[in-house]
Amino acid sequence: MITLRQNLIATILGVVILLLLLIQPAFAKITVRVGAYEFPPYIQFQADNATGLIVDLITQLNLLQQDYHFELVMTTAVRRHQDFQQGLFDALFFEDANWGWQQRNISLQQSAAFASDEEVFIALRSKATSQQWFDDLTDKTIAGILGYHYPTADFQTDPELLTNRHSIIQVNDHHASIELVLKQRTDTAIVTRSFLAQYLLLHPQYRNTLLISDRIEQRYQLQLLLHPEHPLDINILYQWVLQLLQQPDFQSTFARHRLQLLVPAGPQ
Fold this sequence. Notes:
- It is a single chain.
- By secondary structure, the protein is α/β, with parallel strands linked by helices.
- The protein folds into two domains: 31-116 and 220-261, 3-Layer(aba) Sandwich (D-Maltodextrin-Binding Protein, domain 2), CATH 3.40.190; 118-218, 3-Layer(aba) Sandwich (D-Maltodextrin-Binding Protein, domain 2), CATH 3.40.190.
- The protein has eight helices and twelve strands.
- The N and C termini lie far apart (68 Å).
């Protein structure tokens, strides 16, 4: 026989469970899916393992605050605009709004630039005996990354156009670009200065083999991009990222890869 006390206990338990179910959404973290494509040293993929500045930043953002949960979503340089529009991820780190976003009139939140990097040309010293070699590349083959936007190619990304009009050999990763030069399968390659610094740290034997151009292909200002309907405010995200990147570990990484942190003057 069920006693009055048992009825009371059951009622109380029911009320507690109902309250927990009602208040749980209020305490649930909001997910921020960060899209990322092969772009060392910001991020690089080996098998299913991702490493780089973006991975470290996501980890630290999750430790810094309790309202949002940041997670990594893989995309590609070619597919990233479409994936963003289809809602497959919410944000991009170390991106430039000029890389096809404004040209496609894609609606997004964008932060102030917080880091700068640049692209240069490399060639074998046995071919390029002076800096003048880089002045005119019209009769030379160039290695570049599929889906990237280059001034030399008028920021076009169509593979056929790049091959036929600009003699650009397209590869999927930055290591391949440098290796094509080393194996004399292309005359020159466009590489980010940050990745080149990383590559030469790992392969110092090539420092005297490669000539690095004084000519700059492009300088870019790296930003945070965020979906316009996401509840996280881009200015808050920017302040968090800026705070983290000024920590000693990130400062050391920036110095090692010859990256420049852009900190606005005056109070934050």
